[in-house]
Amino acid sequence: MDEPAEASMLEQRTAQVVELLNGTLAPEEAMAESFLRSIPAEQLKAIGEQLTAQFGQALTVESIEPVSPARAAITIRMERALASGGIAIQTQPPGKITELLLQSFEPVDDSAEKITADLEALPGSAAAWFGPLEGEPVFAYGDPQQPYALGSTFKLYVLSALDRAVQEGRLEWDDVVTLGDRSFPSGIMQDWPEGAPLTLHTAATLMISISDNTATDLLIDAVGREAIEAEMRATGHSAPELSTPFLKTVEMFVLKGGEQGTAYAQADEAGRRAILDRLVTQGVDPAPIMDVFSGGTPKMIDSIEWFASMEDERRLMRRLAESDDDTARRIMAVKTALGDSARADWSYVGFKGGSEPGVRNLSWLLRDEAGTWHMLALGWNNPAADTDTAGLLAIGQRILALDR
Question: I want to staple 376 with a disulfide (CB 3.0 to 4.6 A). Which of 60, 70, 99, 364 is the partner?
């Protein structure tokens, strides 16, 4: 009988993913330095803890499908799910892992009751809603009327207001605007040359697909702050005053990272507008702002933010689904945060997520093969500590896998 062939380096590193998820292997043993600069070892351990809390211990490599000697599609069997994604390793020894992304979780022996228990276990408060836009939910958790801080998911209101302005003839998708004021990352436009021209369509695509904050603020200027506030009311938002005035991203950054945040949080609407009128947002010292948003400690997430309940989000998604022009929906479909298997049951998937320390939101607009529109939205706020996108995404994918 032939001797078994020695496992390839790609196979060896994939096998180590099981140990990484279970916390039995130090990330430094398997991960390249380039990977750990992007996702530090402690963060990688935390992700593993979150995933094993959701899906149980990682058990074995279910499958590995190499696409090159250094890259493969992989599936890891966990106690309650099949976790699928991709891996890449260095082409030269020691062949450490340079990329690892598990983005699809197919539940095994899962249930709405188990998902509810996992949502209940999240520190802070959480809510979730999944079902047809018209009708009863397939799955719901939490008070659907309770407002949650949205993070960058608020950008869907900007997109909706832009779509309305185009349909009413006040703007066109191909109108050209020029880059002026800058915000802080996420995004890329903060590094573009002064006066760079771009269309409203390009700015909207950057705003939704990579959550570009400078593009967002440019669009708020183009559409008008008051027009976006009116859009919130027009969609049926139950408490638009919580997000009024409708902040630009740079204003939120400067308020939370500067000295005027407390005064803004305590002011009435007129007082807030007065503060914004005199707020200096360009040429400010970035150090205190970066300290606030990179330190992982939530700050004023209940007062300086953008807010919506699950019901508010459902009304917004209904507005976007009913638009005669599908441009906004096509922009939402550029990045869906779902793997192939999770998208397979839907003829359309659009997405926007949002995060800052203590805030996570994941929201999808979906259309099934029969043409019925659905929404899946999850919100998680914790004013005492940071929250985790990977864990919430895993819960979202488990909800999508429930029988409809």
Answer: 364
Tell me which CATH homologous superfamily contains domain 112-149+307-400. Answer: DD-peptidase/beta-lactamase superfamily (3.40.710.10)
Distance CA 383, CA 300 (A): 8
Query: Any idea where the domains of the chain sit in the sequence?
Result: 9-107, 112-149+307-400, 176-294
- Give the integer Cα–Cα distance in Å for 36 and 91: 17
- What kind and span of H or E run contains 199? strand 197-199
Distance (Å) of CA 376 to CA 120, 129, 139, 210, 253: 18, 6, 9, 20, 28
The SS3 assignment for 135 reads coil
Distances (CA, A) of 289 to 211, 245, 304, 388: 18, 21, 14, 21
Counting runs of H as helices and runs of E as strands, what totals does the chain give? 17, 13
The CATH number assigned to the domain with range 9-107 reads: 3.10.450
**CA distances (Å), origin 230, targets 17, 219, 308:** 49, 15, 15
188: left (phi over 0), alpha (psi -120 to 50) or beta: alpha
Give the tens place of pLDDT for each residue, 171-203.
Answer: 999 999 999 999 999 999 999 999 999 999 999
H or E stretch covering 32: none
Residue 374, number of CB atoms within 10 A of its CB: 24
How many Cα atoms within 13 Å fall on the side-chain side of residue 237?
Answer: 23
Go through 55-94 and write b for each residue having 16 or more CB atoms within 10 A of its CB, e for each that does not.
bbebeebeebeeeeebebebbbbbebbbbbbbbbbbeeee
Cα separation, 172 vs 140, whole angstroms: 38
Task: Kindly state which CATH superfamily the domain 176-294 is placed in.
Answer: DD-peptidase/beta-lactamase superfamily (3.40.710.10)
Fold equal for 112-149+307-400 and 176-294: yes
List alpha helices for 304-348, DSSP H. 310-322, 327-332, 340-343
Omega before 245 within 30 of 0, i.e. cis: yes
Tell me the per-residue pLDDT of 234-286, one tens digit each, with 9 for 90 and over: 999 999 999 999 999 999 999 999 999 999 999 999 999 999 999 999 999 99
Task: Indicate the residue type of 17.
Answer: V
Instruction: Please name the residues in contact with 150: beta carbons below 8 A apart, sequence gap of 6 or more.
Output: 305, 306, 307, 308, 354, 359, 361, 379
Q: Which residue has the tokens 């902040």?
A: 247
